[in-house]
Amino acid sequence: MTIIQLIVILCLISYIDNNIYLYYTEDSSSVEFYDCIYQENFLYCRRPIEPISLERNNNVKECYHNGTLHTFSSLQSNKSNINTILHKWKSSLEKVEEYSRYIKQNLNSIENFLCECSHPQSFGKYCEYLLPYGTTFTMTLNWENQMKFLYEEENQYYSDILCYKTLTCNSGLLCLDWRDICDGIQQCQLGYDEENCDKLEFNECEYDEYRCMNGMCISREYFLDGDYDCMDLSDEIQLVNDRLCIYHEISMECDDRICFPNTWSCGDGQCIANRLAFQLKYSKETECNNRRDQYYMCEIHANRRQWTLSNGKCYFVKDFLEFNSQNRSIEEECIYFTKCAFSMGLEKNCPCKYDPLCFEEDDTESPCSSENIPYPNGAIIAPYLYFIYNNTPEWWSKTPDYIQLIGTIKCRGYMINREMTIPYISKINLKTIEAMLCNSTEIIENKGYDINCYNNNHSSYFLHICNQSKECISQYRINDGYINCADEMDEQQNQFILNYRHDRFQCSSEESIYLSVNNLGDLIPNCKNNYDEWWLGKDMMLSQMKCNQNSKDDCKFIQQYIANNHENSFVELFTTKIPFRTYCDTFWNLGSKYDENIELCSKQWICLDEQWQCHTGQCINVTWVLDGEWDCIDASDEESLFFYNHSFSLRNLKVISLDLLKDKFESLYGITKQPFSKICNLTTEFPCFRVNASNSLYNITFERPCINLQQIGDKRIDCIGGIDERNTIQHCNYPTMLGNDFLCITSNTCIDKSNLCKIMCPNPLDNHLLCSTVLLQP
């Protein structure tokens, strides 16, 4: 089959649903992939580890799984329709094409056959494959992702770590992910993974092209068009929920994505800021959902008991039995004992079940004889970095005592070999460690990265951007909102980026910061005037603007917002406009919050017929009523629902019946379901610790922990933590509502709900009944 024919077929069949099309099914002496299914512009193929010889000529002439065998001559005699064979029989495209040639060229002397796969789950050249679930490939993929979600531990146990094998090198215990190549960090001994990266780093794009952050060029028409085209996603402002990549089908946003600078790849499209976040007991930082950040050191997770399998993956099952446990060496016994201690005896034969202190007692003999214990037993985080524990550690803390650096690092102009031990640091910055090692005088070879940063070959070059740490980076990295030099000098420059500035966002004429577009609307302020998060610093949140795959309404506005900010020429075009129905929808779409003005909403606003109207006049989706979360700012969709007569309005009872409201309310907020039900009158009062209450739980009879339901959402804080004003107070750290987080009132700091009582307020006065408040949170 020719390439042109294949492309035509793929374009045609992409519009046909629920059919399986198999191609690349022909045998060959050297095959890298075969038997591919085309699904939503992606190929799902069988891919052997190495090229194989494929010989599957079916001399027996058999169709498996009760498939029906048809000879070409019988098909021709019966005048079988080629379209029916192609779209219904689930054979291979090559077989269909072979039959097509047979008819057109009158090849009667060549007798061959074709299989009709009649079993609803079978498909293939000889109907040799069976779908494990459903009758379409889409159903199988959805089922597979659902199984990953439901059976997380089994997914760890019955799968291997995905590795990039095109480049073979010593990367330590954990193999390379393809995203590790040219990410600015040496993941291979001798720096093999960072060689020849200058070709992309110093790449120049044409005038009609947009230069992605990593140096890739795309047509300018694709810049801010709502669809990702750069592999690093730096051509759009929309945020990606990459935590779900592990459960997604193949997509560019996950499978073809590379991570931003200073983040670590989880191997499936998720990127995290701190590789060792899992070691922090009360951290709010994100971990890899697939646990790749924890592989080979699963036992030292701060909050989860896990066991490292022989392939490095993390598994949790009580009394898990490790295979090949006989005839361990002394070193292996030490590692086994260490894993038992850190996991609190998770493996079946471990001593001291579920008691980390037991491992520190004198009668529990440790097989570890050396002064220090390396764990894991190999390089981790980087191919030259090892975690070291004292032989008498506090097993419950799981924190290493030292970091040992042993290996060869490639530097600018030379290579060094270094062995040294430093105290453990909780957030390891490999750029800083590499810079420290490269400043050593222990040079072993003059074969490092180009000492002149490839200046002879590239025009976009500044020799001394990283004055101290000496990395080679292009001028496009200057003041882009990401630190690329270990000495951070790339974000402290005053140099002008003439040929790039109109694609980047300048905060103001007073700030020499030219942000990449993906910094806009990311809920992390980079500009002093907040222009990168709010339209002109005061009106609409940029994160709320619609320039994504679902809606491209605001793409042109954002393009012009970036283009005009350099000359401060914000014309009347930029007078803030928001869609009509975003008024009174309970979400802040304007910096002034005027779109949720209660006087406007309660007196003048009319909801759509299918919406529920709050007592405040705001409109919400009917499925949000009595779902356990406040959507109306006065809780008139939850606890206050029967306090206000609005619930019985004719328009509201049309979208949800009174009987259903009563049943749902009773199941959520019945007298036995709420705290202080014997103290507060729950028909008119909301239970919470009042801000003026004494510092004692024993006075609740006299200082009743109750406020009037009418006080909810009145913009005056009456409850500790601001829980009564969760939808009227702005969050301390984000331009959003407080939500279910806890407000430390005197210091105006916020604590994530999940960390209540684990993290305390800066001012002890705010810790007044803080730990008890968690009992009242939804």
Automatic annotation (TrEMBL):
InterPro entries xref list: LDL_receptor-like_sf, LDLR, LDrepeatLR_classA_rpt
Membrane topology category: Single-pass membrane protein
Gene3D superfamilies: Low-density Lipoprotein Receptor
Disulphide-bonded residues: 163-175, 182-197, 205-217, 212-230, 607-619, 614-632
UniProt subcellular location: Membrane
Keyword Transmembrane listed: yes
Secretion signal, residue range per the UniProt entry: 1-18
One BP term from GO: vesicle-mediated transport
Recorded GO CC terms: plasma membrane
Main subcellular location: membrane
Transmembrane among keywords: yes
Keywords assigned: Disulfide bond, Membrane, Repeat, Signal, Transmembrane, Transmembrane helix
This protein's name: Uncharacterized protein
Record organism: Adineta steineri
